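Query protein
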Amino acid sequence: MAQYDLNLIETLRSLEKRWKVVAASIFIIAIAVWFMTEDPPPYYIASASVKITQYNTITSAVLKDNSFVSRRTDNLETHSKVLSSNNLLILLAKKMGYIERNKTVEEIADNPKDLEQIRRMREIIWNEKEPKTNIIKIFSKSFDRKESIKLANGLADIFKQYNIDEANNQIVETRKFIETQTIDFRKKLDEQEGQMNTFISEHIDNISLGEDELYEVQKELTRINAIISSLLPQLQQLEYRLSSGNLNYIDWVTVDLGNNDMSLEMLNQEVLGLQLKKIQLLIYHKPESPEVLDLEYRINTLIQNMAKEYRSIFDNLVERREELLLKLNIIPANDAVLQKLRRETNLLKDTYAKFRNELQSAYIRESEKIVEVSVLEEAADPTEIKDTTRWQKTFLGAIVGLILGVVLAYLFETFDTSIDRVEDVETYIGVPVLGTIPHINVEETIEKMVAMHPDSETNKNLKYYASLVTHYQPKSAVSESYRKIRTNLDFIKLQREGKVFMVTSTTLDEGKTTSIANLAVTMAQMGNKTLLISCDFRRPSVYRLFGIDREPGLTNVLLGNYQWEDVLRGITDVFMGDMIMLEEVITNPGLDNLNIITGGSIPANPSELLASNEMSNFLDKMRDEFDIILIDAPPVLPVTDAAILANKVDGIIMVYQVSKAARTSLKRAVNHLQNVNGDVWGVILNDVASEIGIFSEDKDYYTRYYTEATPTDDSLVGLITFKAKEIYGKVQGKFKDSQAEGKISDGSDKVLGFFDKIFSPFPSKKKKDSEDEDDEFKV
């Protein structure tokens, strides 16, 4: 199967084929560009450079690292935006005189003319940042050289002054801000210090002076808890001894109060001594003795004194412990509040100190002028730019037209589904191309026929007769094309036998009937006994080409109403028909070998009639009677008649009109015929354009070839005379038989008189030679 991806060669062929599209596209766009443009005047581009620095004074450089509220430090991108802002453009327009100086921004915004001027300046003025530098270049474009310089330098100066004003205005505002903040922070600091002092005075006893004091309180609390824990059981023992009255056992109480107080220790020692004495007295005395009772009294008194002393100490310790616990609970809260007051006070002190320093720096900066923008290079010599000339634009337009034309040609070629090259057909459908037929100019032939026979102008079948170019114009390029097809068929017949051929097409109106009629004439002109059968029962037209009646015909034979000999038409029937220019019928040999069987009456079932055994038997009989049998069949795709006849014939010839039917339709038609065992011998390309074929270029060659060589003897004239007389004899015999049978009227004598006029003596050789000397190369 053929591949239709356009390669380089096919693309070049497509461009060659559709060169008119490319040429028209180039011409139209180039002409349009030429008339729509004109040579523009040269314009000038001037450039000025400005340098951006953050500080430009010694004091600023010294103070910049200590600045708390720093001045705005614009980067290059910000400066670039400022340069293209409306504010600076308005100032420049006023400086250049484009806008009145006393106009406000609101008045400019309400004036369309002023706004248009600002927009124009935005288009002709721009800036660019120099890579890896702090330099910005300002560009201006104008058709006036001086104006371009003024615009660039003017914007640079305005930007410099604008930056100075902005920077120094900011310094003043900064100084005022710092001054106000310094006063505010001084007030806040005084208020904070007053709050802290008041708190300290109110909570002097419940605040710690430090971590050491807190540690001592906790240490004392721990010691008191230990003493209470040791003292409590002994105190309970003493109180129990007093309450029970049992003083007859030896016991003692020891506790360390941590204050070097020896009174309790001495009382304890005295009690112990009295207890020992009592024990010793009880050895020799009775418990009721006065000595023992006196000792017990003294012991009891000492114990009571000790209990009172211990209770007093215990109560004091408990009270001290409560004081310490209360102090531990109050001191942390007061300390936290005090610490917060101290932090806030310190922060205010630091802030106030910084603002005081910044205020001093602001006073110094205010006394100087800060210049961040300096003009590094002024515009002096602008560059002259010559824009694209009219011819250059036209050339570019032609290039665009060429590209567009190539695209259009490619699109036309892509969407063109027809096949217009021989190699495409042979590759796509796999069968050879038997020949190509150029376009038949029927109107030209009709004009020649009417010029020679004015009475034929009203003939309704004149256009059909004009299509029979192989008979009426045997020396034309079209006739030679049919003879080439005939030759190609003869060569193919040397390799495989074939006598019966069906000529069909893919669809309607592709010229199959015209092609088969002309092919039949060329076969007959070679001396082959040729039979032309019209099997297109649906749209019969063969009979119109030869000016004969349609009925009776093939359908009548197949239905058994006639014998094939009765419907066979020959040259005599052509003479008796409506065909004009009988001189050519006589002088151009070949029609005497041509026999025609028309379609006959139109049947109701053409497909069944063609598929009948009668049709097969009829073709078998014709094989024995004729050398070449050509069958005009209906198109393949619309009806099935051609498929029915495909396996009854020896070969099939497809007629394909270039650019008429899609290539897929041609492929489908060929496959359809091959599927029913049809043998497609080849394809005839019909109505081939001059740029595809060679006919337009070689037309003069064919004309000279057939007209220059005028016979120098009477051999050709004798041959024509012989053939004409032979035909005349047959016609006379046919007319006489018809008159005898009463089939024609006696008025047919006029026809014989016409033949007598035609067969008048030919010019002599001597006279002919003298005439040819002047008309040797006349067409």
